[in-house]
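Researcher: Please translate sequence to structure tokens.
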Amino acid sequence: MSDNVPTPQDDADRIRLKRLAKLENVAASSSRTSGTSTPSAPSPPPPAAPKPKPIPRPSAPAAPVAPTPPRPASGLTKKKTAAAKLDLEAWEHDTMQEVLKVTLNQDVAEKSGYEIVWLKHLALELAEEGASTDGKLSIDMVDRLLITRLELNPQNMTDELDYLPVLVSLPPQQTVFEYLVGCWKRLNTARSAVMKKGYVPSDSLKALDLLEKVRTLVISYSGYILQEPEMFPQPSGRVLGPAELVGPLLSLSALSAPLLSNSSNGQNTLSPSDIEQFLQDFARRFEPDNELDDVLGPVVRGLLFHESLFRPEGLGGSDASWRGVISGLEVLVSIKSIASMITRMEEWNPKEATAANFETVSLFGPLLRLGVFFPEWPKIALTYFSEPERRSRDDIESTYASLRGTLKSLQTSLFQVFNTLVRASAESREAVLEYFARVVSLNVKRAGMQVDPATVASDSFMLNMQSILLRFAEPFMDANYSKMDRIDPLFYAHSSRIDVSDETRIKATSEEAQKWEEENKTPDAPAPNFISDIFYLAIAMSHYGYLRTIQTYNDLSKHIDELQRHLDMLNGDGSWMGSPLQARTEAAIKHVKNEQAKIRAQQLAYDAGLLDPDMTFRSIGFTNFLSTWLIRQVDPKKTHPNPLVQLPLPQEVSMSFRVLPEYIVEDIVNYLFFAVQTSPDKFELAGKVELMTFVLTFLTSTWYIKNPFLKSKINDVLFMSIWGYGRERNGILGNMLNSHPMALKHLMPALMHFYIEVEQTGASSQFYDKFSKRNISYILKVVWNNPTHREALNIEARNVDKFVRFVNLMINDVTYLMDESLSELTQIHNIQVEMDDKAAWAAKPLEYRREREGTLRSLERHASGYTTLGRSTVELLKIFTAETKAPFMMPEIVDRLAAMLDYNLEALVGPRCQDLKVREPEKLKFNPRVLLSDIIQVFLNLSDQAQFIQSVAGDGRSYTKELFDRAADIAIRRGIKSETEIATLRAFVEKVEEAKAALEAEEDLGEVPDEFLDPLMFTVMRDPVLLPSSKTILDRATIKSHLLSDSKDPFNRAPLTIEEVVPVPELKVRIEEFLTERRKKPTVINPPAELPTGSEMDTSQ
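Model: Translation complete:
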């Protein structure tokens, strides 16, 4: 919009008039030559505008030359009617009288019914001064006319009977500002009349010039009266000062401008169509003298701290006065000088503000804090989502649409305001960036684990800030990433706008980061560009704001789960009913249900804001852009994604990447993890390739990230991306993993590499955490039927050391998970059996029953996780042993594999299998039928391997022929396996029996010297080696197996590799001599004990 210059229409008119005047002068010159015309006299220079007398201030600037109406140039082929001549003196009198509604002639006042005010005392003063006016009004006396009119007080009485009607006829409740607004509006009417009449251009220019002088004076007094309302007499009981302009600004959203422009009662009030021009006149008048801040500053404060922004109902109230605030603000900032003024105000970015009060004491804070979240706006959640359990889905969706529409309107307007401020001037742009940076710096604590919400900015405030920054980022996030290189990769060294000195870096110490910043600082270099500022501010705002709000939302879900568990505990087995505790228990249950409804209402309110489709699309778009930018930083060619980065990445990690704040990767991962669960359908339009590329890049090159939990979360994102939704059975990425070249080539190596690396997480809960993160069987299910992926696995298996380690970890997982799940199932079985005896259970004390019920619920929660992970890991073992067998036959692997399989087979079909019978096994994700089938299948997959037969035969703890016979019978009877498969299993058992007989005949060694026994396994060593640090001797296979899971000496925890162990050939020779001698002695083979008979476990599930 205009800034201290006439409006665009004024400019157009002025240009047109100048052209006409030029043509007129040419025509006049031509007429002088021919003697047919006389030249028109040049216009005299305009006199200086008069200055209001009551307040000594700098003289008002001369008004710009006003345009005159267009006039056809002489000499054109088509003749037109000659322009009318203006009687300037008569026009000046009539116009002054009409605009100011004053006269020096009593008769004129009487004829108008005193609508035109008779300035009797001014007329007498002029007469005494000898001024011969004959009652004529002129521009020279406009200052005195205005002052005399403004000093009239309708509350005063007079003894002058002829003057009494004047005072009585004055509008009793009209404020000075309203009178001046009326003058201003009549000036506009007079100007339009001059423009339409088609006077001679020189006359029009003179007339318009006179009007501009009056306009300047009227605007001057309007500004001063806003500052000092008591300068002139004012009616009592009226709101005066800045509020008189705040009111019209608030009315902008009520009705459209055309509806109010002709309002009969609006002659002295600003209609919506008037406000912008009125403010432009203010800016032209006061900006050159640096008075704009004093005049409009209080108006801005009155608007932006309007009480409607602090009402408890916020956006959800029936009185949407906040819309008036935002509409008024939009008009204010549309004028560049006012926009710049706003960013200069002290309240724009208050120096003493804290994180908690910034949104209430900064100018834009009250608008930015509007939202729908419960902590700030509890009435919205309790009003719109009351009794959530009774609301239908359609009803809730309708409420969502209403709230989201309102929120979108607010956020769109807020962005338009900030965008206008940014474009107003270089100073206002910097002020806006500093405003964003200040919000970030004040709210660093929001990223903490335990934060008091009262000490930081609200979620609503931060969500709106994020929305604004995401909209600012949209122009440089084009589909081809053509503007990505304009982002400064060394921003944290080149700019101090965002302080990351206390932040954890991706893979650098604070000392390394500080050194890097010092090396890359260039004091004389220009500051980073606007794109870089917005990009990094959006990242920081997301970290401290949006992502923390998501965490709050997730915490509500956890709270609901906790309340449900508490409710289940209160309900128990219902034995409290009919007892003295019934009333107390019912009251407790009612309280918990009420709390559940309250938390659910809060959750729905967060749904409305966080899961808004527009916000989700923008967030996914920015996150994908950020992940692409991050990969480009590690791409040696710096061209990703055109073409895609080559994987795996180089081993050397550049320092510029290492020193980046870790929260950049963390926020990408956390938001993707949230989005793929809550809004998977939003990836259908765009974002799948970026999601897949990010996951595969950092799973194949995990050395680029130091934090092990962050690496694990990346795997979680991949897992959730194949989770089905709607009609997409394989989730967001399922189909792409089977078709995209990058996935076909790198998915299998990435999964294997990650599975191995996550072994050591460094956490106190590492032994459980690694299973929840490392499970990859779900992903393999999606891709296993693709021959390209199976070939990729075979290629990986050629790297024997790596694949053996992978197999070892898989066996560790199956061992642990199956042991835990079967153990907890046994405990669940025991508690359920105890509860089934109703009489004995009722006789137990209440506290005992509640304790056992709590234990049962806890066991059920844990067991379902263990059984799910255990079953999937066994399935993984089944898949891999079918595809590649050699790695499973390594000496350090095969014995452990055989022992683990035998142990779990015994648990499923052995004498204690009945202990695994539980009620509702599907609730615990326990399917013994599938588990037994998978374990038998592993035996079948390896049944042709001699090493495996030997290892099963050597398992003296769990293996018996009877165990396998029982498993075979169950499998046939339950239809778990076919006759052909069972025949193969029985043939395998026969081979095992033969090997077992041979081993027993060979291994009956009698007393064995301790020095020949492995200190860990207590078996005879075959290849003794010395550990260099602990000086302990043990079998090579034992230490090799140990080092697959733990890279330390088992005796003193010193770092150790297999290459460092020292062979002990002398001891090996002695052991071999001992074995040779003992094998020459005859042995007696004892028959195995029979398997106890008993009822088998139900595997029909």
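Researcher: Any highlights?
Model: The chain has a mean pLDDT of 84.
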